[in-house]
Structure formats: structure tokens, C-alpha cells
């Protein structure tokens, strides 16, 4: 039942003169107590108009609230009720003064005084009992239910019970089931709409207020206010990123959506690493990397599956997302409650730039279509528009790649031959900037992609050689130089590579393998390319000897990794077997 409907029903039922017991049951965290407090405040401040429609003589409702948590004896509850009822004043207080006149305080049993209060004392008072599932083991549920029955039958009292019936102790479940049929007049299952739960906390949300959080909560049926509170806290903690993404709606949707998804999962999982491991095991293609075979039985975990459903997209996209840089940063935040602003901004900024460049690429496509099909759009206008775009944009690895850039330069040269040299010189300068800032991409690029850049002008080929040499000289430590020397870099000084690599001792190689994962990876790749090349025979012999030695190490981790590399190289005939 929604909050709105429950409020209407309670106003109707509790507004009558009859004694009544109402139970409000609901899952953990849906805000049952919060709802009651809001409802109570509205009653006492006369803000529920329907209440006065059903109870026209009322001048304002009074309530007493009893949390069973921490109560050790039934007398504690009786005392609490008594003190709250007389604190409301009116007939109860006057009646008490008369009863206690001339009686010394030490002789008064406060918990027993409730029996002295008559029905008039409970007029316009609703007693609410909460936290049944947290009832102390020293108190029997029968005692509490007996007191509620007494209030209803003997004091003509209205009672509201708030509980999570599903979370009662097993013996209390049996007791409750036994008594509730005779005791409870109305049972309500409180299940608020996600929008109603969000309304409770919405004022806390200080940022990303335009994002459709309500849609996400509704789609995933999240009405637990504790989960929603964790989501809002996470959004507020990442408010620093808003200025960086405010002009990129697609990136905003991605980043804010990611924060919400990770926070929603975090609020319900005890170990994120266990959850991610479970998701990885669901993908057969990843089993070898986990040391598992496809024949290994996968056991579905219902709880983890429910959490996985909180991430939008298909199974493959969900795994990719959980292993992404964004998700990794968010998971670290969830585990430590600390935000690494600098690191997060560093991840987000390229996304914003790529999205902007994709928009530029799309704009170029629109203008190209206009040039092809719009009879009123002249060649000069198209050339000018395209030039204005290229003038202010930079080349990137993906969104506005060298290939795309060169295609557009070619278009300009073909359409405007008078300015061909201007376009050519401009392209050289922009491509130089790209080469200098993206040497790793150049080294790993497909041959055709690389040649398309270098063949554009011989000046670019010379510039690339210069950048490679400078990169060698600028390596900040010996291991970086070695890694660079192992790479198959075009235009690299071949003799220098052979000389420097051959001078490395086995002890140096062993230490580099143990200390630097990038070096070991480089060795693996180097042997696949040069394992049988005679000019590198000395270095290959030393490297392979160290790998075989490590494969026999007492350190299982070292042995496992080294043996795997050796076996792989031998199976592919990249190195000779002993």
C-alpha cells in the first residue's frame, strides 16, 4: 500500500470513537517509522483534512510512541505509556493529582499507575508500538500483546503496531500468528512507491537534481530509504565533477548513472570483490583467466543476480562496466568513503572531450550530406564551414582520428585547389602535434594507419624518427630504457638495441622481472618476435634461462607465472625447448 493510500485509511479508522488495533507491516528500510512520525505530526498540527471529515469533534490528536528496542521488562513499557499519557495534560493529569493527594512518592509503583487511568484518560490518544522484531529476549511477546489487548479492551484505546513481520524471531512468529487474528482489527502492508520514498529525502540532494533518479528507482523498484539515502550521499560526494560534465549531457548521463548504480549495489552488498568475481565467473570466456575450466560448475547466487540487475544493459556490458576505470574509482570510494577527486577528473575529462569530438564528427557528416544533396548549399560555403571546424579541432586516437582528419583535408584540397598548400601545411603541423603526444599509439598502430600518416609528407617521417630518439633519451630510469629497447620500433637504432640488451646480466634480468610487471610483459612480447633471431641470441638466452629458473622457484606465484610464459612460447615455437 502506498503512503498516500495508507494515510487516508488510517485517518478514517483512527478517526472513529471505537477502540481499535492496527498493524503496519513492511520490509526493512521502507520508512514505516518515518511515515508514522509524519502522520502523527500532521494529526497534532491538524493538517490531515480527511481526519476531521471522519472525526469532526476532534480538537487535535495526541499520541504516545513506544519503541520496544531496549525494553527489558513489561513494567518499563507500562511506565513509558503512563508518563506519555499524563504528559498530554487534560483529564489524565487532573485525575492523577486527585489520586496521588497525600501519598508519599517512595510508595508509588509508577508502572502500576496505568491501571488507575480510566477510559477518558486515553481519549484522543493513540499509542504506537514499534520495533517488535528487536524485542529483547528477556521479554516475551505474549506480554506485549497482552498489554495491547488490555489497552484496547479495558481502556478503549486506539493502538498502532509497526513491525516487519517477516523478521520476527521464529518463536515470536508463531506467537504473533496465534494472537493477531483476535487482537488486530486492520492489517496493512506498507509498500510505498519509490517516488514517495524519494520525496522523504529529496531535500538532501544538493547536485544532479535534473537527473531522473526517480525513473531509476521506479524501474528497479527501490523504495528502501536507506538505499536511497546512500545513493544521494554518493551523488553529493561527487558534486565536484558537475562543472566538468555540465555541457556534455551524454557523459553526465553515463557518470551520474554509474554513481547511482554502484551506490545502489554498495548499499546491499558486504563485499564488492566477491560480487565482481561472481560476475566474472558468469562469463565463460573469462574462466581461463580465473584458472577455471568451462566444465567447472557455475552456481547461481540469487542475491548477486538481484544486485546485477541494478546495472542497466546486457550481461557483457555489465561486466565491462564493473571493470571500467569509472566503476573501479566508484568502488574504491564505496570501500573507503574517500573520493579521489584528481583521479576521477582525470578519467572523466577524456570522456567529455571524446564526446565533444564525436559531436564535431557528426556535424561534419551533416555538412557533408548538405553538400551532396542541398542544391542551395554552395561549394565555397561548404569549404569554409569545413575549414572552420578543422582549424579549431585537435586530432585524437579515436573520436577524431588521423584517418578522419586526413580524409577531410583531402576533401578541402580537392574542392579548393587555390589553397591546397595552406591545407597541406596546416595538416603537417597538426599531425606533428598528434605524433608527439601519442607515441604509444603510433608504436602500436596498425601498419596501414601508421603509414597513412607518415606517407602524407616526408617531413612527418623524419619528425617521427626524431621523436623516437628523444623518447629514448628522456626515459627517466634504466628499466624504462630497456622496455623501449625491447619494443619493435621503426627507425630505432638497431645496433644500439642489440648492444644494450646483450649487456644485461641474468641477475639484472631476474630482478627486473620480479620488480616490474611491464618489463615481464615486454619480455614475453619480445620473445614472441625475436626468440629465434641470432642477433639477439645472447639476450634471448639470458632471458629464457631466468624464466626457466623462476618456473622452478619455491615461490608458487613466481613459478606459476614464469612456467605459463615458457609453456606458451614453447607451444607456439617462439623459443626452443631445452
From TrEMBL:
Pfam families: KAP_NTPase. This is KAP NTPase domain-containing protein. Gene3D superfamilies: P-loop containing nucleotide triphosphate hydrolases (3.40.50.300). Residues 8-235 form the KAP NTPase domain. InterPro entries: KAP_P-loop, P-loop_NTPase. It comes from the Bacteria.
Amino acid at each position: 500500500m502506498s503512503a498516500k493510500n495508507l494515510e487516508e485509511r488510517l485517518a478514517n479508522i483512527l478517526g472513529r470513537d471505537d477502540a481499535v488495533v492496527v498493524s503496519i507491516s513492511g520490509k526493512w528500510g521502507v520508512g514505516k517509522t518515518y511515515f508514522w512520525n509524519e502522520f502523527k505530526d500532521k494529526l497534532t498540527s491538524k493538517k490531515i483534512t480527511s481526519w476531521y471529515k471522519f472525526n469532526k469533534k476532534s480538537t487535535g490528536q495526541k499520541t504516545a510512541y513506544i519503541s520496544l528496542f531496549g525494553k527489558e521488562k513489561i513494567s518499563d513499557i507500562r511506565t513509558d505509556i503512563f508518563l506519555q499519557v499524563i504528559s498530554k495534560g487534560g483529564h489524565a493529569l487532573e485525575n492523577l493529582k486527585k489520586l496521588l493527594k497525600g501519598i508519599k512518592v517512595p510508595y508509588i509503583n509508577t508502572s502500576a499507575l496505568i491501571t488507575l487511568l480510566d477510559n477518558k484518560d486515553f481519549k484522543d490518544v493513540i499509542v504506537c508500538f514499534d520495533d517488535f522484531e528487536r524485542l529483547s529476549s528477556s521479554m516475551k511477546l505474549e506480554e506485549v500483546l497482552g498489554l495491547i489487548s488490555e489497552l484496547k479492551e479495558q481502556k478503549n484505546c486506539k493502538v498502532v503496531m509497526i513491525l516487519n513481520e517477516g523478521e520476527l524471531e521464529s518463536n515470536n512468529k508463531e506467537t504473533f500468528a496465534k494472537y493477531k487474528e483476535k487482537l488486530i482489527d486492520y492489517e496493512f502492508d506498507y509498500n510505498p512507491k519509490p517516488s514517495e520514498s524519494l520525496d522523504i529525502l529529496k531535500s538532501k540532494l544538493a547536485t544532479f537534481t535534473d537527473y531522473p533518479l526517480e525513473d531509476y528507482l521506479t524501474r528497479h523498484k527501490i523504495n528502501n530509504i536507506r538505499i536511497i539515502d546512500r545513493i544521494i550521499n554518493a551523488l553529493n560526494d561527487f558534486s565536484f565533477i558537475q562543472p566538468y560534465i555540465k555541457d556534455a549531457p551524454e557523459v553526465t548521463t553515463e557518470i551520474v548513472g554509474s554513481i547511482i548504480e554502484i551506490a545502489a549495489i554498495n548499499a546491499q552488498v558486504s563485499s564488492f570483490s566477491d560480487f565482481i568475481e561472481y560476475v566474472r565467473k558468469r562469463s565463460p570466456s573469462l574462466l581461463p583467466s580465473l584458472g577455471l575450466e568451462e566444465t567447472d560448475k557455475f552456481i547461481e547466487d540469487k542475491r548477486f543476480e538481484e544486485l546485477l540487475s541494478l546495472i542497466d544493459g546486457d550481461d557483457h556490458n555489465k561486466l565491462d562496466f564493473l571493470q571500467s576505470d569509472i566503476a573501479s574509482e566508484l568502488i574504491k570510494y564505496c570501500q573507503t568513503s574517500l573520493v579521489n577527486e584528481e583521479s576521477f577528473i582525470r578519467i572523466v575529462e577524456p570522456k567529455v572531450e571524446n564526446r565533444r569530438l564525436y559531436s564535431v564528427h557528426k556535424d561534419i557528416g551533416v555538412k557533408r550530406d548538405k553538400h551532396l544533396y542541398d542544391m542551395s548549399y554552395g561549394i565555397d560555403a561548404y569549404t569554409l564551414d569545413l575549414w572552420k571546424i578543422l582549424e579549431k579541432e585537435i586530432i585524437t586516437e579515436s573520436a577524431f582520428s588521423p584517418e578522419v582528419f586526413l580524409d577531410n583535408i583531402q576533401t578541402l584540397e580537392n574542392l579548393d585547389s587555390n589553397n591546397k598548400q595552406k591545407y597541406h601545411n596546416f595538416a603537417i603541423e597538426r599531425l606533428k602535434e598528434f605524433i608527439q603526444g601519442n607515441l604509444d599509439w603510433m608504436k602500436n598502430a596498425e601498419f596501414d594507419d601508421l603509414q597513412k600518416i607518415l606517407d602524407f609528407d616526408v617531413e612527418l617521417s623524419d619528425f617521427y624518427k626524431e621523436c623516437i630518439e628523444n623518447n629514448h633519451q628522456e626515459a627517466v630510469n634504466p628499466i624504462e630504457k630497456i622496455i623501449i629497447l625491447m619494443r619493435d620500433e621503426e627507425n630505432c637504432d638497431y645496433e644500439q638495441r642489440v648492444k644494450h640488451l646483450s649487456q644485461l646480466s641474468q641477475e639484472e634480468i631476474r630482478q627486473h622481472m620480479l620488480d616490474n610487471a611491464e618489463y615481464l610483459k615486454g619480455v614475453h612480447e619480445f620473445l614472441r618476435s625475436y626468440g629465434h633471431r641470432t642477433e639477439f641470441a645472447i639476450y634471448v638466452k639470458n632471458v629464457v634461462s631466468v624464466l626457466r629458473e623462476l618456473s622452478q622457484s619455491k615461490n608458487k606465484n613466481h613459478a606459476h607465472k614464469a612456467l605459463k610464459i615458457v609453456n606458451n612460447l614453447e607451444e607456439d615455437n617462439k623459443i626452443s625447448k631445452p
